[in-house]
C-alpha cells in the first residue's frame, strides 16, 4: 500500500517534454512545501540549523526560479495563443494571488485575534490588511505573463528577449525601493521594486528575468527541435555556460550580486538560470531511467496540479498556525508537519484532478439542429 494514492486511470507516462517539466514542477512544489513549513512552523534552532539552511538556500532558491523559468518556457513554446487569452490568464493569476492572501493569511489571522489566540501585539507589524496586500508568486506570475506576452507579440527575435531579461537583472539595483508620495500607488509599485519587508516576495526586478529567459529558451528549443522530442542536451550545454559565467560574475563582486535569496544581482540571476537548466537536464535523465515507476508518476501528478497544490499548501499552513502557533515546532515535529501538509494537500487535490479529467473526457454537447425551410 502506497502513502500517496494515484488515480487508477492515470496513464503510464511516456518520455516527452511535458513529462519532464511536470516532474520538475512536482519536485519544485515538494521542496517549496518543505520550505514554507520550515519557515512558519520551525523554531529558530530548526530554521537556522544545517538542515534548515540547506533546505532554504540550496534548494529553495532553485525551486522558486524553476517554477517561473518553466512558465516562461511554455510561453515560448506557444505560438497559437492570442493576446486576449494571455491577458485573461494573467489577470486570473493576479486576482488568484489576492484571493489566496485572504484565505491563507487575512481570515485566519483575524479569527485568531477575535478568538483571543493572539493579539495585535503578538503579530505586529503584520495585520490582517497587510496579509491581504502581500505580493506573492501569483501576482508576480500575472505581471510577468503580461510582460512576456507583450514581448512575444511585439517581436519574434530571441536576442531582444534576452536583452530584456538582461536589462531587468542589471537595472534592479537602480530601481529597488524607489517609491512615490502616494501610498495607494506604492502598493502596486512595491510589486516591481519592493522587498520582503514591505510584502513583495517576488518583485518584478529582478525576478521577471527568469520567465523572460525561459521564454527565449523555449522558443530556441522550438526552432531547434520538434517540441515533443526536445534534445535536452541543450539544457546541459547552455546551463553549464550560464552557471560558469554567473559564478564568475558573482565572485567578481559578491556584495553587489548576492543580496538576499529573494532579491539578487545579475550574477546570481545568471547563475540560477544555469542551475535551473542543469536541474531540468538531470530530471530528464531521471525520467528516462525511471519512466514507468511510481515515483515518476507521483511527481508528474503533482506537476500537473501544481497550481492547486500551491494554493492548498498555503491554506493548510495558514490555518494550521491557529493550532500550533508561529515558529514553535522542534525538528521532529517540523518534519512531521511537512509530511502532514503534503499528505493533506495530495488528498485534497484528488477530487480536483478527477473533475478536470471528467471535464476533458466529456463529449461535447450536440448542437441543436436548425430546420431551414425550402424556398417556395
Walk me through this protein's architecture:
The protein is an all-alpha fold and 376 residues long. The protein contains 17 helices and no strands. The model is unreliable at 368-376 (pLDDT under 50).
How would you sum up this structure in a few lines?
The protein is mainly α and 376 residues long.
Gyration radius over CA: 22 Å
The assigned structural class equals: mainly alpha
Mean pLDDT: 89
What's the overall geometry?
Answer: globular
Task: Please count the helical segments.
Answer: 17
SSE layout:
Layout: H1 17-41, H2 44-47, H3 50-77, H4 83-114, H5 120-123, H6 128-132, H7 137-154, H8 158-175, H9 183-193, H10 204-207, H11 209-224, H12 233-252, H13 254-257, H14 266-289, H15 294-304, H16 306-324, H17 331-361
Helix pairs in contact: 1-3, 1-14, 1-15, 1-16, 1-17, 3-7, 3-11, 3-14, 4-7, 4-16, 8-11, 12-14, 16-17
Amino acid at each position: 500500500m502506497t502513502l500517496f494514492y494515484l488515480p487508477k486511470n492515470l496513464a503510464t507516462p511516456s518520455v516527452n517534454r511535458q513529462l519532464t517539466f511536470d516532474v520538475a514542477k512536482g519536485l519544485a512544489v515538494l521542496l517549496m512545501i518543505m520550505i514554507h513549513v520550515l519557515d512558519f512552523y520551525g523554531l529558530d534552532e530548526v530554521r537556522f540549523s544545517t538542515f534548515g539552511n540547506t533546505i532554504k538556500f540550496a534548494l529553495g532558491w532553485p525551486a522558486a526560479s524553476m517554477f517561473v523559468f518553466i512558465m516562461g518556457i511554455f510561453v515560448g513554446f506557444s505560438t497559437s495563443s492570442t493576446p486576449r487569452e494571455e491577458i485573461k490568464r494573467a489577470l486570473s493569476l493576479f486576482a488568484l494571488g489576492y484571493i489566496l492572501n485572504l484565505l491563507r493569511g487575512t481570515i485566519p489571522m483575524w479569527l485568531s485575534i477575535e478568538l483571543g489566540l493572539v493579539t495585535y501585539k503578538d503579530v505586529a507589524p503584520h495585520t490582517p490588511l497587510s496579509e491581504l496586500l502581500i505580493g506573492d508568486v501569483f501576482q508576480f506570475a500575472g505581471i510577468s505573463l503580461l510582460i512576456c506576452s507583450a514581448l512575444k507579440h511585439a517581436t519574434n527575435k530571441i536576442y531582444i528577449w534576452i536583452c530584456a531579461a538582461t536589462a531587468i537583472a542589471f537595472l534592479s539595483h537602480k530601481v529597488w525601493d524607489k517609491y512615490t508620495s502616494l501610498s495607494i500607488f506604492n502598493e502596486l509599485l512595491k510589486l516591481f521594486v519592493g522587498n520582503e519587508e514591505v510584502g513583495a516576495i517576488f518583485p518584478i526586478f529582478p525576478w521577471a528575468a527568469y520567465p523572460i529567459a525561459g521564454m527565449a529558451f523555449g522558443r530556441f528549443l522550438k526552432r531547434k527541435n520538434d517540441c515533443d522530442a526536445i534534445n535536452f542536451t541543450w539544457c546541459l550545454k547552455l546551463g553549464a555556460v550560464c552557471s560558469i559565467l554567473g559564478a564568475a560574475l558573482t565572485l567578481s563582486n559578491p556584495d553587489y550580486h548576492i543580496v538576499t535569496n529573494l532579491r539578487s544581482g545579475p550574477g546570481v540571476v545568471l547563475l540560477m538560470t544555469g542551475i535551473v537548466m542543469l536541474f531540468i537536464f538531470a530530471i530528464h535523465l531521471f525520467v528516462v531511467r525511471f519512466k514507468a515507476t511510481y515515483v515518476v508518476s507521483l511527481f508528474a501528478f503533482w506537476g500537473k496540479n501544481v497550481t492547486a497544490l500551491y494554493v492548498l499548501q498555503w491554506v493548510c499552513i495558514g490555518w494550521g498556525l491557529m493550532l500550533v502557533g508561529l515558529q514553535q515546532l522542534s525538528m521532529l515535529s517540523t518534519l512531521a508537519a511537512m509530511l502532514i501538509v503534503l499528505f493533506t494537500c495530495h488528498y485534497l487535490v484528488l477530487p480536483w484532478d478527477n473533475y478536470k479529467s471528467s471535464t476533458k473526457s466529456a463529449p461535447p454537447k450536440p448542437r441543436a439542429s436548425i430546420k431551414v425551410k425550402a424556398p417556395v
